[in-house]
Amino acid sequence: MAAPPLPQPEASFETRFPADFAWGAATAAFQIEGATRADGRGVSIWDTFSATPGHVIGGGTGEPASDHYRRYTEDVALLKSLGIGNYRFSLAWPRIQPDGTGPGNPAGLDFYDRLVDELLAGGIEPWPTLYHWDLPQPLEDAGGWPARDTALRFADYAETVYGRLGDRVGTWCTVNEPWVIAFLGYASGEHAPGRREPASALAAVHHLLLAHGLAAAAIRDPGVPGAPAVGIALNPQPIRPHSGSVADLDAARRVDGVRNRIFLDPLYHGRYPDDVQADLAGVSDFAFVRDGDLPAIAAPLDFLGVNYYSPASVTGAAGAVDRELLEPDGADPSPLVGCENVGLLSGAAPRTDQDWEVDASGLTELLVRLAVDYPGTPLYVTENGASYRDEIGDDGAVHDPRRVSYLDQHVRAAHAALAAGAPVKGYFVWSLLDNFEWAYGYRERFGIIYVDYDTQRRIVKDSGRWYGRLASTGAVPPLDGSA
Ligand code: IFM
């Protein structure tokens, strides 16, 4: 007699997330909106920087980007059709305060008001970020983030935005990736405003954290109705020593200091780490820290946003650092201020088309480390994704199996962190749309939706369908997207 059929394992072995896990997609204003001169928008540092020849690959600027300012209803409809229930976007400060100060520009506020209403009508939760790198140019002219006043201006801007949207938006992210803003904007000069002043970069670190703290207080002001959740999105990176040698371990400590702990320790412990301050003593005396700043910065976070792309492997070995120095020719300042004589090593792991290492284990490592070293805060992966230079196939579709595989590996890595006890509450793919990838211009494509920049036609990629299925079921689908 034939044996009875065995139970099918799929249902019990699938990777399934909790029912209340937040699935979302992320974008940023300057990268998608276009319409840089519409409705009274002022000039941002990225308008200025990208207009300068040589700063952006291919000469790309914020025009046309993905023309989202005019096509936002179509984009919200796409989110809805994919079953993605959360949308993380940023507001362009120069649309709200064209000069960086003063009363809100009604037309700029109206745009985000309409966007929020459109999202809510579609059953999609809005997750605004107040600052994703597009500083009003007049504020840079007045000193930029190294100037303390910029943090005070930011709090005022946050209050203006909250006053308009706070009745419908419950979750707020203040600043996106202060490491990038401070170190790529003010130390290496690869990003706007393109300054190469290591001491200014450290002042920018502090004023960005202060801006976060002051904005969080403005949003949580008990005089305003509602109890909003406020967090910040960092891009902490697992820093792995190449070996157990003293030199490599010390290199990893130093890089972890300026990459991660310089932000996390003030936010969680209300102080800059002693070893980081000692490492940076030749660059800055931290005199920019004033009484009351650190308690403002350390007000408890309602959540921490974690943007993850890849880990880094570092060495402090004298011979090894000659192979790939963080300061390759000694002329270009390194974004890793205070980490002289540290080498960054390339591993054998596969790489994206942007040449970023693909290593999902780094996401598990990072989330678990945050849960252990900085406990007590819900963690959201507020960005994760990959650039592959997709093309439209003969069948008119965009097949992007490498991105599906990347996302599959990384959501499983987030699940592993959850299983290990890290309080991971959500995941946002970067990005909803192909968009302007900063100094890389339009060459890189991170979207789960393809954008034809000539026509602005949107085509949902295979990864978009795969991710939509994940977002609507909470279970990781098969790689081929089949049922
Ligand atoms: O496109 C960026 C985004 O603006 C911030 N985080 C990293 C992404 C990919 O580089």
What's the N-to-C terminus distance?
32 Å
CATH architecture: Alpha-Beta Barrel
User: What is the H/E string?
Assistant: HEHHHEHHEHHEHHEEHHHEEHEHEHEEEH
Estimated structural class = alpha/beta
Mean pLDDT: 94
Assign the CATH class.
Answer: Alpha Beta
The domain tally reads: 1
Strand content: 5-15%
Report the CATH topology name: TIM Barrel
- Tell me the number of strands: 13
What would you call the shape?
Answer: globular
Radius of gyration: 22 Å
Overview in brief:
The chain is α/β, with parallel strands linked by helices. The protein has helices spanning 10-13, 29-32, 45-50, 68-82, 93-96, 106-121, 137-141, 148-165, 178-186, 198-220, 246-269, 274-279, 293-297, 318-321, 361-373, 401-419, 462-473, and strands at residues 22-26, 86-90, 125-131, 171-176, 229-234, 239-241, 303-307, 312-315, 343-345, 379-383, 424-430, 449-452, 457-460.
